Amino acid sequence: MRAALTRRQVLASTMAGGAWLLGVRPPEAVAREDDPRSFGLWLRLDRAGRASVGTTVTQLGQGTHTAVAQIVAEELDLPLAAVTVTHVPVEPAFGQSMPPGITTFGSMGFKVALATVGPAAAAARDMLLRAAAAQWQVPLDGCRIEQGTVVRVQDGERLPFGALVDAAAKLTPPLAPALRPRSAWRVLGQAVRRADIPARVDGSARFGIDVDLPGMLVAHVLHAPSFGATLAAVDARPARAVKGVVQVVKLPAAVAVVASGYWAARQAAQQLRPVWRAAQVPVLDTGALRERLHAAVSAGAGLAWPEPTEQQADATTQALQTARHVVDATYDVPFLAHAAMEPLNATVWVRGAAAEVWVSTQSQTDTQRAVAQALGLAPAQVRVHSQDVGGGFGRRLEQDFAVEAAQIARAVGRPVKTIWSRENDMRAGHYRPAVASRVRLALDHAFMPTGIRHDTAGPSLLRHSGVTSVPPHKGFDWSYIMGWVDMAYAIPAKDTRWTEVEAGIPCGYWRSVGNSQNCFFLEHTLDQAARLAGIEPIAYRRRLLAGHPRALAFLDAFTQAAGWSSPLAPGHFRGFGMNSNGKTMFSAHIVEIEVVRPGEFRLVRIDAAIDCGVIGNPGLVEAQLMGGTLFGLSAALFGEITVKGGQVEQGNYDSYRVCGLAHTPPLHVHLLPNGDAPEGVGEEGPPSIVPALANALFAASGQPLSRLPLAHAGWALSQTGS
Question: For residue 266, what are the domain limits?
Answer without folding.
Answer: 208-279+344-419
